[in-house]
Amino acid sequence: MKKAFIFDLDGVIVDTAKYHFLAWQNLAQSLGISFSEEQNEQLKGVSRVRSLEKILEWGNKTISEEEFTKLMTDKNEEYLAYISKMDVTEILPDVPRVLDYLISKNQAVALGSASKNARIILDKVALKNKFQAIVDGTNVSKAKPDPEVFLIGAKELGIAPEDCIVFEDSVAGIQAANIANMISIGIGDASVLHEADYIFNDFTEIKEEFINTLVTTQKV
Ligand code: BG6
Ligand code: MG
User: Fold this and answer.
1) pLDDT above 80 for 219
2) Ligand 1 pocket, 136 CB below 6 A?
């Protein structure tokens, strides 16, 4: 059977969540808004625009459109400075093993990320050629938990949504996969990702037997 395996990027393939956090934290600080790791959890998988809106809501702040645009640019410039130093050592453990296994089994593999920087990051960590389709923040109009990003990925691969499996580290991403009627696999903390069909701490826990089961299972 042929399935599509759709990978989120930030926090699934690479640990860029820490760079997003640092950049948002600096921005919040400059506005005098306190910003905790718990709040950061709510920004995972969320678009750049929506993230800034949420931070401003938490801080009860209203700003002009010009300032909003400037803050988004500043945040992204700081983030780009962090990712410019990335290399293959930042790929999360066993991600290449799982990707290569799926490819060797003739399964379709796609990227489904909210980030507009996804292609830059895939280049930095030399993984771009593993993906048959790349859908990122430049291709979507609706942010996770809207399923658009994953549905476009499925369409590009020519695989029905119920034959897709999504790897995600964010609550919004798990919800998006579930809404799309895809199998959702949470990568991270089970207490946060409890809406997922399956949850693992990281890819080292994802064995070939489990992948083989996924290839023969359909979401009910
Ligand atoms: C998601 C991240 O993958 O991409 C979010 O989890 C981020 O934290 C979003 O805000 C948008 O990313 P970017 O790189 O376009 O700012
Ligand atoms: Mg993510």
Assistant:
1) no
2) no
